[in-house]
Amino acid sequence: MATLAVSERALCLMLISISDEVEKSIDYVGSIMSAGYQKENKYEGQPPMRWMRFTVAGETSYGLVEGDQVEGVSGTPFGDYRRTGKRYALDDVKFEIPLEPKTFYAVGFNYPEHVIKISKQQGIEPNLPTQPDVGYRANNALIPHGEAIVIPKDATEQVQYEGEIAVVIGKTAKYLSEDEALSCVLGYTIGNDVSERSWQKSDRTLWRAKNTDTFAPMGPWIETDVPDLDALETTVRVNGEVHSQFRTNAMLFGIERYISTISQYITLHPGDMIWMGTDGTSPNLKAGDSVEIEISGIGVLRNPVVDET
User: Fold this and answer.
1) How would residue 178 be classed by pLDDT, with cut points 50, 70 and 90?
2) Strands, E, within the chain: which ranges?
3) What pLDDT is attached to residue 46?
4) pLDDT bucket at 37, cuts 50 / 70 / 90
5) 0.70 cut: is pTM over it?
6) CATH of 50-96, one of 3.30.460.10, 3.40.630.30, 3.40.1440.10, 2.30.30.370
7) Out of 5, 15, 49, 201, which residue is the most buried by the measure of CB atoms under 10 Å away?
């Protein structure tokens, strides 16, 4: 009986020891998880994030912006990723375009005032669209926040900005209703659809009027926390002076309508992007100017203007 009692006591101590080790293991795993070493997925209850692409010490990667710093990430916002724990001041990194889109969709004539004023500039009668019309842009025109817009040597003085909200697709989508449309959106960034108006009027396509190298500044990052599109306001400044200000979502056809329309015919994929058009008009840009497009809740895209040399 005495031997059995000792064995029971030893067994109890062993179980207590095992329990303590299990608890320590759970705490250890929990600490790793909280440090960001788990696989994370934005669409599974993850908190809102601000994604950017940046280069530091010759290496380009995605990162998560927190205040005036960015933490490096291994992976992309369109799949699995891990935080690296490496942090850098935003002032110490080179901004890159937030994504290299698989397909670069662009919406034209989506704000009534813009349609009317551009039509008058070109000497034609305004013709408001009666349905969503979708076009495309070329990736070669994309440049990041801070990089220069280059005016070609043979361009006229009619080089103008167009400040736009850009929708970044995060999930594969097909046959979405308007109510379902935003379910495939990762977030939003800012675009400047620079346009040479004389070429836009004279050429049969927009191949150079809107697709010339450097004519599509985009950035500074992708903002995933945009709870109310109707609350957004777009402000465009040239050399610090406000030239355009409008409600971002005051479109003829909204983001939901465009996503739904596109998805009836074309499968949307992670990394696709839709630029949603602009309102108002722009002064002619010239070398030495600085163009700043701000969309409340998203950020500020700023680019200098230079002449081609």
Assistant:
1) very high
2) 50-56, 59-66, 69-75, 81-89, 94-96, 104-107, 134-136, 142-144, 149-151, 159-160, 163-169, 185-192, 195-196, 216-223, 233-238, 241-247, 273-275, 290-295, 299-307
3) 58
4) very low
5) yes
6) 2.30.30.370
7) 49
